[in-house]
Amino acid sequence: MKHDDFVALLEIGQDASGRTVLPVGESATGQIFGGQILAQLIAATPADRTVKSLHAVFPRAGRPSDPLYLGLENTHDGRSLGTRRALVYQDQHLGGRRVVATASVLLDVADDDEHDYQYDAIAASDPLSAKQINLAIVPGDTRLISAVGLDETTAEPAELAFWMRCADFGDPALAKPLLAYVSDWPLIGTLLKAVPGVSQQDAHVRLQTAVVSHSIWFHQVFDISQWLRIEVRGRRLAGGRGFGTGAVYTRTGALVASFAQESVIRRFAPSQGGNDDRGNVRSLRG
User: Fold this and answer.
1) From CA 221, how far away is CA 224, in angstroms rounded?
2) Domain 3-272 maps to which CATH number in 3.90.45.10, 1.10.10.60, 1.10.287.470, 2.40.160.210?
3) Is 54 in a helix, a strand, or coil?
4) What is the pLDDT of residues 147-159, one digit of tens each?
5) CA pair distance 242, 51, nearest whole angstrom
6) What does each C-alpha distance from 16 to 19, 71, 201 come to in angstroms?
7) Residue 271's pLDDT is what?
8) How far is CA 44 from the centre of its chain?
9) Chain centre distance of CA 119
10) What is the distance between the alpha carbons of residues 104 and 76, in angstroms, rounded to a whole number?
11) Residue 284 pLDDT exceeds 60
12) Are 54 and 215 in contact (CB under 8 A)?
């Protein structure tokens, strides 16, 4: 992902009938990346408010080959807080709508209050002491804090920590969309770190994986062009369902955002392909 490619995802337009159209990015899995939709929902909110939190559910996979539409309802606007209800959908060939995502967005005008406490403080640290690594999802510099990344198949604790800095993103309006975009990516891979013999490389190949719901909370203003520390924890994997959480800190240790995700993680049914224990691996696409 490059700066211009990400900015292009936020260029929301309208079709001839007046419907709001969301750009669709390239896909390696045959599905629309959920982080793209999270970023676009933030970009679609009013300029006079900031997004305090976003809570999205993904009932069906989006098809990159089809136009993507957004319906946004103004549910409430108060003195300091407001809400929007969003529906992201695609047309079906036989009529009707294919709902890709539903979401609620909490908008905020911060109160002038002196209380400022952080209850899970971490020590300040130096990102340049961490190992340089290429994370394709991040349009900038990344450094791995954890001893092991997401591609190893040895069973490790379901934890991931890394630094990210997107120096080309000086526009403050891009900070929240970009962080939401990145936050959708690492949780499934982090859960799989604890499973012997598999890794994130097996997603859509040996394993059927999908995000079911994703929430992100923004606690204070931050600069995406400066180093941010991302801490991810897998919390539970059972019954083909996963749950994990994440926290985002500045270089000085201030907590600026939190996120959580529910997912589907399961082996393919025999009719869907997958690994038949003889090396035959078939991907599920779409």
Assistant:
1) 10
2) 2.40.160.210
3) strand
4) 999 998 888 999 9
5) 26
6) 8, 15, 41
7) 58
8) 16
9) 24
10) 11
11) no
12) yes
